[in-house]
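Protein: Lipase helper protein
Species: Archangium gephyra
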Amino acid sequence: MAPGRILASLLDRHCGNPRQRAGECRALLFAHLQERLALPEELTSAAFWSLLERIDAEFDQRVTSNPRSHSDDEFLAVHARFREARRELIGLELDRRLFGLSDELLQLPQRVGELARDSRMPLEQKLAVYQDALHRIEEEHQVRLVSVMEPVELAKHELSLRQSAEVLGAEQRREVLERYTGPEYARRYLDYHQEQQSLSERLKAFNQERESMLKQWASESSPEQLRQRMLAVDQHLFEKYDLQ
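Structure follows.
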């Protein structure tokens, strides 16, 4: 998003005293990025950091200070305009090398959502399109997605596609999660979400029963009587729904 500040924070954390070693650390980081991303040889370290500062300023102007960016529905549209301004600033090829992967990852959930909502496309085709997109990103950017994304996020994308076409049982969910995350993480993830679902259901039942009793006694009790009654009710319901 704001790459200059992101890299500057890395320098502050890993380069000791930034005032004494800032220049050296910036040069080393630029050299690594130049080799890793095959940046143009004529691009100097000073020019690189200057470009990032200008990109940060564009991000502040077009995204951070834009109230529309706070809406999930409008954020991608706001970011798309920022991306166009960024490309005009540094050129398409350099933009692709520096930000192509991050742009892909930012847009991936939207693409998955569009696939999930396409009622005309068979499930197997949706899954094939999703896997093709993952392979393309890895090949184009020479990276393993599990090294830059949480594997569970990749699994959740596939689960959302499958859930758009069929009701998934616990075993089906486990199989998908295990394929991306391994059996131990999948077990912990599913156990945690099962616990959260159970807690949510118990809280809902607690609130419904408490509200019913409150309505029943409100008209026939004084405020003090109602308070005392509800204290006893709350203790009983906490125990009943295992909310201690």
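Remarks: Residues 130 and 154 are 10 Å apart (CA to CA).
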